[in-house]
């Protein structure tokens, strides 16, 4: 799909489930430890480090692969709001972004985001929202997202993780 410095973007498929899960297991504990204490993070990680089969089938979820085939990033978007499935006209939601810890600051997350934005805009989306982890807030802010509010994202009853709702509006035609 898109070739970049040292990695290539492509659509994810259900066959990527094991590798996406492995990437999430390597990324989230390492990168989120700076923003969360172990007591808050441990129960959430068991839920967050599994590939989402619906996202892998969606046609709007992407992976970044290094030349040897190692997945170094993933992320996508949906019209459905995470957790509720609600759809708001012309608003999409970034979903399950991760970058391998050895590949941060190499443009992986930004390349996946650009692919998501281009596809969402082509689908008529005028705003993107995301539930950012505390450690990823600066990344999304650098992409033009504004902080809406901090909240506890419920991953399942009794398990929540402090998160930040962020939003980026697009100017029609720009």
Structural summary, described in words:
By secondary structure, this protein is α+β, with helices and mostly antiparallel strands. It has one domain (2-169): Aminopeptidase (3-Layer(aba) Sandwich). The chain is built from 5 helices and 8 strands; from the N terminus they run ββαααβββαβαββ. The chain has helices at 17-32, 38-48, 53-57, 108-122, 137-142; strands spanning 2-4, 7-11, 61-65, 71-78, 91-99, 127-133, 146-156, 159-169. An 8-stranded mixed beta sheet has the order 1-2-3-4-5-6-8-7. A hairpin with a 5-residue loop joins strand 3 and strand 4. It is globular and about 45 Å long. The two termini are 23 Å apart. The relative contact order is 0.17.
> Beta-strand percentage?
25-35%
User: How many independent structural domains?
Assistant: 1
User: What is the CATH topology descriptor?
Assistant: Aminopeptidase
List how many beta strands DSSP finds.
Answer: 8
Query: Termini, distance in Å?
Result: 23 Å
CATH classification class: Alpha Beta
Average per-residue pLDDT, rounded, comes to: 94
Q: Widest sheet: strand order?
A: 1-2-3-4-5-6-8-7
Low-confidence regions: none
Q: H/E order of the elements?
A: EEHHHEEEHEHEE
Biggest sheet character: 8 strands, mixed
Rg of Cα set? 15 Å
């Amino acid at each position: 799909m898109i070739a970049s410095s040292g990695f290539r973007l492509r659509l994810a498929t259900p066959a990527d489930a094991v590798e996406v899960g492995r990437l999430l297991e390597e990324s989230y504990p390492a990168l989120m430890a700076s923003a969360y204490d172990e007591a808050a993070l441990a129960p959430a990680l068991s839920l967050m480090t599994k590939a989402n089969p619906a996202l892998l089938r969606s046609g709007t979820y992407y992976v970044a692969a290094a030349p040897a085939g190692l997945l170094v990033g993933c992320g996508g978007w949906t019209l459905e709001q995470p957790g509720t499935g609600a759809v708001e006209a012309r608003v999409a939601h970034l979903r399950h972004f991760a970058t391998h810890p050895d590949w941060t600051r190499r443009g992986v997350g930004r390349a996946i985001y650009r692919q998501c934005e281009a596809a969402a805009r082509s689908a008529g989306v005028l705003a993107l929202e995301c539930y950012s982890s505390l450690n990823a807030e600066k990344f999304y802010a650098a992409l033009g997202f504004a902080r809406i509010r901090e909240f506890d994202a419920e991953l399942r009853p009794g398990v929540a993780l402090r998160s930040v709702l962020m939003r980026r509006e697009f100017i029609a035609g720009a």
